Amino acid sequence: MGPKIIKKDSFQLIGYHLLTNLQKIGEEHITENMVSRLGKIKEKIENKVTDDIYVLQLYPFIEEFNPFEDYYHIFIGYEVQKVRGVPSEADIYTVEENMYVHTEFHGKRTDTYKAYDFLYNNWMEENRCIPLGMELEIWDNNENHTEICIAINKIK
């Protein structure tokens, strides 16, 4: 199934937040370290919706943004039904209701850039959508499956 536009209600995440860029993520294995830290507090997080890991990336609205050099926010956590029992070392983030282009990527997570390339450079233009600077990946326990959601506005 190809990309489609979906509406997601507001939801909350509990996990870890960091300001970084792709260069640091690659050199310092930041994502892997954050997921490992998250696993250590997993049982302390109450009201998890699932064990899926949410990777939220928030980009600044600057001209010619370059994710390899420019810093952006990354939040890695679990979706929770209601915020209760937040471990002291964790953060809470609320994602507001939004429209997204949603697709499922089947392949190594290191290759998700191929899906992003298609969505940003082909699909959004063909479907008259503008990205809003927020990407969400949902990782289940299958290493070769990633849900990708990019917040958008649809141009009429």
Automatic annotation (TrEMBL):
One Pfam family linked to the record: Cass2
InterPro entries in alphabetical order: AraC_E-bd, Cass2, Reg_factor_effector_dom_sf
Chain ranges of the AraC effector-binding domain: 1-153
SUPFAM superfamilies from the UniProt entry: Probable bacterial effector-binding domain
Protein name in UniProt: AraC effector-binding domain-containing protein
Species in which this protein is naturally found: Ornithinibacillus bavariensis
